[in-house]
UniProtKB/TrEMBL annotation:
Protein's name in the database: TerB family tellurite resistance protein
InterPro entries xref list: DjlA_N, TerB-like
Domain Co-chaperone DjlA N-terminal, chain residue ranges per copy: 132-223
Name of a matching Pfam family: TerB
């Protein structure tokens, strides 16, 4: 006795006959951080045209699709928002610039007359990726910053320094976990505390750093207080 073919069998045969395909066209390329590979890879940006197929042969247009980002290594497709994530190299450069700018801002607020803050700042900047940084270089940059802006060292964070902090930290903050943003603020706090309690100017600079890192004001207050407590 022959088996009775049901509706599911007929639907399966229809799907084998009819289908869709997409013809992709490259419209750009570059380098991105591939979430599938877990590293920097080359990519192609693609747009597609969908077609209805009959027995595997394209017969009717079905509109456009995409754009998508295709990884040159793994071949996976991603939405274009994946390009908002910086590459590993770009992120490292952003973090290096952020650490350097925070150190300069805190030194400018506290002055460079004491050796301890310069030593602490230099260690932080070196750990952040500027391996050839010296205390003399930092002191010279702080003096040049003051001369360029007409700002007196030890004054509260002025408009020009605030702008520099936001330019360095605004692009970085969305890609740092909360713990990373807190750690960057604490680095600045340790520089300020290297020669004694916060001055009003140092606290003002660190508050500006916290705001640029999108840390809530109450968290900034908590972290600055915690940094004063010996571990």
């Amino acid at each position: 006795m022959l088996p009775v073919r049901g509706r599911d069998d007929r639907a399966t045969r229809a799907l084998c006959v009819l289908g869709t395909c997409t013809a992709w066209t490259p419209v750009g390329d570059g380098e991105f951080y591939c979430p599938g590979c877990g590293g920097d890879r080359n990519y192609q940006r693609l747009t597609g045209r969908r077609r209805l197929t009959l027995l595997g042969v394209p017969v009717l247009p079905r509109g456009t699709t995409g754009p998508v980002v295709e990884c040159a290594a793994c071949g996976h497709h991603y939405g274009t928002d994946v390009l908002d994530h910086p590459t590993t190299r770009r992120f490292s450069a952003m973090l290096r610039d952020g650490v350097h700018t925070v150190a300069l801002a805190v030194l400018a607020a506290g002055g460079t007359g004491s050796r301890a803050p310069l030593e602490t700042a230099c260690a932080a900047v070196r750990a952040g990726g500027v391996e050839d940084c010296t205390e003399e270089q930092l002191a010279a940059l702080v003096d040049a910053l003051a001369a360029d802006t007409g700002r007196v060292l030890g004054e509260p964070c002025g408009a020009s320094l605030t702008i520099e902090l936001h330019e360095a930290l605004d692009p970085l903050a969305p890609h740092l976990a909360p713990a990373g943003r807190e750690a960057l603020l604490l680095q600045g706090a340790h520089i300020a505390l290297a020669d004694g309690p916060y001055t009003p100017a140092e606290r003002d600079a660190l508050t500006t750093v916290g705001a640029a890192l999108t840390l809530p004001a109450e968290d900034v207050t908590r972290l600055l207080a915690a940094a004063r407590t010996p571990s």
